[in-house]
Write a structure and sequence with these properties.
D-amino Acid Aminotransferase, Chain A, domain 1; alpha+beta; Dna Ligase, domain 1
């Protein structure tokens, strides 16, 4: 067994993904204790840094989803107090969490991602951006996916099947972020490729496919309610499609500057069989229905070993 350490597990917080984060953190805590570490659990709040400084810790395991946990904020604070931590550094977090920035970087690098147009809430009032909507509709077609520029777990993602539905979908997405993106809808299969740092190079795990049983798309409830989604891992794909999905995931991981772990979400288009990268998640879920643990299990990596590898990567930055 590796050296026993004093490990802070950061979880909870005040974001909309609090509930999922608490579940991820609880799973991680249990694994760390089984691995022989001394665990200090922190439900992240205003006294976090004070408590971290007072606890004489060796390392932090970040299970904090959403705002502050995935956008580089808590990572920057941990660097300021000299505490090693799991996952990506602030720059990688920023590049990954801002969907618009990530998609622009992917476009520049030749990585396929669905066509999109960003829209800031303030620009509607201050620049008359609403007048551009007919052109956006003509460019992207219907149905349209409307999503917050930041955030995860499919929170705030809306669909507009016509011009009449678009304003309502935009209002719904704006309630989660002041910047949204309108994205071309890709009808196809929801895939995810998780990446773990290995001894020599990052390792792409087996592809997971999420098949919602009821909803039109893989939404928040489908992700986290047991029984709402059928998961296939490894996904039943042609060998070349699997290889291509893993290749794209590794390319995105490197492009965005990820470290330790990440999950890259893709769509396999129904008609063209083309793969499209949607986004990169730098703090993937660690719940009983989360995709990273399922992919690791399919690769022969048990949950405790997965947690151990993620923790070890905190010292290889």
């Amino acid at each position: 067994m590796s050296e026993a350490r004093r490990v802070a597990v950061l979880k909870g917080g005040r974001s909309l993904e609090r509930t999922v984060s608490l579940r991820s953190g609880a799973q991680v805590q249990d694994a760390l204790q089984r691995l022989g570490h001394e665990v200090f659990a922190f439900d992240v709040g205003p006294e976090l840094v004070e408590h971290l400084l007072a606890s004489e810790l060796d390392v932090a395991f970040i299970a904090l989803h959403g705002r502050y946990g995935e956008d580089g904020t808590v990572q920057g604070l941990l660097e300021a107090i000299g505490l090693p931590y799991s996952g990506s550094a602030p720059a990688g977090c920023v590049r990954s969490t801002d969907k618009i920035l990530a998609k622009r970087l992917m476009r520049e690098a030749g990585i396929p991602t669905p066509d999109f147009h960003p829209l800031r809430e303030a620009s509607i009032k201050e620049l008359g951006a609403a007048a551009a909507l007919p052109g956006i509709e003509a460019d992207l077609g219907f149905p349209l996916v409307v999503k917050p520029a930041k955030g995860g777990s499919a929170l705030g993602v809306k669909f507009a099947r016509s011009s009449a539905q678009l304003p309502g979908s935009m209002v719904g997405a704006f309630s989660y972020d002041h910047t949204i993106l309108l994205e071309r809808f890709v009808k196809g299969r929801d895939l995810a490729v998780s990446v773990l740092d290995g001894t020599d190079r990052p390792q792409a795990l087996p592809v997971v496919e999420a098949v919602p049983r009821e909803e039109d798309f893989y939404d928040y409830e489908s992700r986290y309610e047991i029984g709402m989604t059928t998961f296939l891992c490894p996904a039943e794909l042609a060998a070349e499609t699997t290889a291509r999905a893993q290749e794209l995931a590794l390319a995105v991981y490197e492009l965005l500057g990820c470290h330790g772990l990440a999950r890259i979400d893709l769509l396999l288009e129904e008609d063209s069989e083309e793969l499209w990268v949607l986004e990169c998640n730098v703090v993937p879920g660690m719940t009983e229905t989360s995709l990273l643990p399922q992919a690791a299990d399919a690769a022969g990596i048990g949950f405790d070993e997965l947690v151990a590898r993620i923790l070890a990567s905190a010292f290889t930055r």
